[in-house]
Amino acid sequence: MLEFLAHISSDGRKQSVLEHLHGTAVKAAEFASAFGAEEQGQLAGMAHDIGKYSAAFQRRIQGAAEQVDHSTAGAAECAKINEPYAAFAVMGHHGGLPDGGSRTDSIDSPTFSGRLQRAAKG
């Protein structure tokens, strides 16, 4: 069975995507409970690295030089279930919250709307 990796430490220890998502979901729920958003935190934690379940990311983690957007996939899944706050958090979990943009943005736009449109097109 293929193992999907989220992280490989400098000493060679490996963490699976599933293990990473679960651990992050628990921590995010704990942090978000301080302002009454435990479920949103849990969802964002579970979704934030779904994009690591891709052949491109698995090549990247093994040393390939290609750039991989792994955050848009999770944001798109949150948007599909009408959870825009979690979607914004997931999309911005590395580079900060994106400009929201609008429905008229092209798929090449770096905005939230543009990236979701690009994800929908595959």
UniProtKB/TrEMBL annotation:
Residues 92-122 are annotated as: Disordered. Transmembrane segments: none annotated. It holds the Pfam family HD. Keywords: Antiviral defense, Endonuclease, Hydrolase, Metal-binding, Nuclease. GO terms for biological process: defense response to virus. One of its GO terms (molecular function) is metal ion binding. Residues 103-114 have a biased composition (Polar residues). Residues 10-122 form the HD Cas3-type domain. InterPro entries: CRISPR-assoc_Cas3_HD, CRISPR-assoc_Cas3_HD_sf, HD_domain. This is CRISPR-associated endonuclease Cas3. The lineage of its organism: Bacteria, Bacillati, Bacillota, Clostridia, Eubacteriales.
